[in-house]
Fold each of these.
Amino acid sequence: MPEFDADRFAEAKYVDYLTDLQQAYKNAFDRMNDRFDSKLVHAIDQQVLNESEPFYEGAGRFRLELPEDPADRVTGVVVDEEKLDGVLGTYAETVEREIARRFGFDPDEGSATAAE
C-alpha cells in the first residue's frame, strides 16, 4: 500500500490507490452483507456504488458521492423507498469508514494514524 498523500488522492485515487479502494469497498460489502438482505446489498453494490466517487475531506474523513437518483438505479429487488434509503445511507457510511481505515485513519476519531 502506498503511503497516503492527501494532496495526491484526487488525481491518483484510481492509479496509486485503486487496490486499497477496492479492498475498502469489499470490506464494506462484507459488513453490509452480514447485516442486511444480501439481494438488496448486492443490488446497491452493483447498481449504485459502482458509479460512486470517493473524496478525501481532510482530517481523516472521506465522503462518498453517489450518482444522481440512486434509488431509481436499484432494480431486481423489491424494497420500499424508506428501507432502501436507510440501507443505502448505512452502506455509504460504511464505505467511507472502510476507506478511512484502509488508509490508516481512525474513522471514529477522524484523526490520522498515517501521515497526511
Amino acid sequence: MKTQVISFSGGRTSAYLVNLFKSDPNAHFVFMDTGAEHPATYQFIKDIVKHWAIDLVCLRVVVNPKMNEGGTYKIIGLNELKQDFEPWIEMVKKYGSPYYDLPFCTARMKTELFEKYCNNKFGKGNFERWIGIRYDEPKRLPIEILKALSLPVHKKAVKQKQGFRYLAEITEFEKDDVLDWWEKQPFDLAITEHLGNCVFCIKKGLNKVALAVKDEPEQFVKWVEVTEGDQVRSEGRKYNHHRMYRERLHGSDVAEIYKEHSRDELYNSLRSSKRYESGSCSESCEAMV
C-alpha cells in the first residue's frame, strides 16, 4: 500500500484534510515553511499538532548559492517555525524576485523539496500526494476528478497527474462547510483569508495585498527590505527591477497607491466584490497543483 502524504499548507481547508487522515496509520503529514507566514498561521500549525497528536514533518529549503545547482531541504522542529523570511532572503539572492505570472517561489520553496523529501523517504512512486482542494473549486481540479464528481469540465482543465489526490474526492465539503466545522473546534486559525499563505503573497490581488499592509505594517516593512533590497539579484533578468506584483508593481508601490484608502474601505470593497468567495483567487498556496 502506498503511503498517503498529506501536503499541509497551513490553511483551514488543508487542515481539515489533515483531520480526515489523522487516525490513518498509513498517512504522513508534511508542511513546507517559507518563513513568511503570519505568526497566527504558525500558532495554528502548533495547535493542530498539539490537539490532534499528529507527527508533522516541517521542511525548509536550503538554497545552493551556486548557479545551475539545485538546493535541498532541512527538517526543522515546531519551535523553529517563525516569520524570519530566511528562505526568501536566500532565494532572492540567487534567483531574484518571483512575480505574479511566474511564481517560481512555490516551486523553489515547496514543490521541489516536497518531492525530494518524499522520494528520499518513501521511494519514487511509493506514495500519493493529497492536496486540500475542495468540491467547490472546480477550476483547480483535473478532468478525471471533475468527471467522477459529475462536474462540468472547463476549457482549462488538465489531465490528472499520476499520484495526485484531492480533498474533493472524499468529501463534498465546500468553503462554508469548512468554516462551519472550524467554528465547532476548540481552536482555529486566528486570521482572515487575506493574511493567509505568505502574508504578502504575489498571487493575491493588489487590494488584498494593500489590506494586508494595513493590517500588518511592521511585517510589511520587513517584507520590503527582503524583496526590494540591494541583495535581490537582478542580473540576467528581463525586467531589471524587483517588481513582483500585478501591473509590475513593487510592494512599496502597492502601499503608496492605496495609502489614502482606509482599512475598512478596502475590506468592505473585497466583501462586496465577492473576492472572499471560493475561486476568487488562490486561497492556499499548494505545493503541487
Amino acid sequence: MKKLYVIAGCNGAGKTTASYTILPEILDCKEFVNADEIARGISPFQPEKVGIEAGRMMLKRIKNLLEAGESFAFETTLSTRSYVTFIEKATKLSYQVTCLFFLLDSEELAISRVATRVKEGGHHIPEEVIRRRYKSGLKNFFNLFLPRVDNWLFVNNSGDSYEIIAEGSMNEITVNNVLQWKELKEKYYGN
C-alpha cells in the first residue's frame, strides 16, 4: 500500500530529528521531503535566503511523488492550508495518510529551541513567525488535517523523552493524557 506521512509540528519541535530515525528505521519510509533540507542544499551557509525557492521545489517534489505512486513523507508546521489539497489528492490516489504531530508545551519553548538551533549553526526564524505558526499549526491540525488523515499520532516532545498524548484513526481515538488533550481541543478545535 502507498503511504504518505505528514511530519508536523511547530518550529523547534524536533520534527526533522525524529524523522531521521522514525521514517527509515521504524516506518520503512526512505523518501523524506523537507524544505529546510532543500534550502541547505541550495545555499548551505544562508539557507534562509532561499526559503521560497526551496518551498517551491518541495511542492513540486511532493506532486511528482504522488503522481509516481511512491510512498514518502514530508515535513510541515501545518500553519497554512496548502497541504490539504495534497492530502485530499493522496486519498483519492489510494494512499494511506498518517500525520505525526509533534507538540511543544509553549510558544516560548519553541522560541528557545530555535534559538539553540541557531547557536548550533541552524537557521533563524523570527519570533513572531514562530508564535503565529505555533497557534495556526494546532488550529489546522484539529480543524483541517485530523478529519482528512487515515491515522494520526499526537506527541508531546517538550521533555527529554516524548509522550504520546493521543492517537487515532478515522474510527477510533485513544487518549493517553486526557487533561492535555482536552485543553488543546478546547483551545484550538473549532476556532
Amino acid sequence: MSTDDPLMTWAPAACTLPTAERPLREAEFDELFGTSSAGVERPDPTHLRIALDPTPEVAARAAALAVRETRCCSFFTFAVVASAGQVRLDVTVTDAQVDVLDALQRRAGEAA
C-alpha cells in the first residue's frame, strides 16, 4: 500500500516499531530501494533477495538499516552479501511472518 498520508503506512500490523516512528523507518527503506535497488527475487515464501548497487556506501546503509530494524522486529533476519562485484540484501522470516515479507517485497518491487 502506498499513500501520501503519513498515518497510513505499508508496514503490516506485525511490525512492533512504535506507530509514530513507522513512517520514518519506511522512508528509510523507500530511500534505499528507490536509489539503490537493482532487482527483487523471491527464492521461496520466507526469503526475499534484493539486488543493490554494488558500492560500499550502499552496503553500509543497508547494513545499518538492517541492524535498526531487527531491534524492533526480531522476526526479520537480514544478510548483506557482497560477492563477485554484486551486493544484495537477503531478508528471511518465519512462516508466521510471510505477510510482512510480502509487504516489504511489494515496496521494493515498486521502487526497483
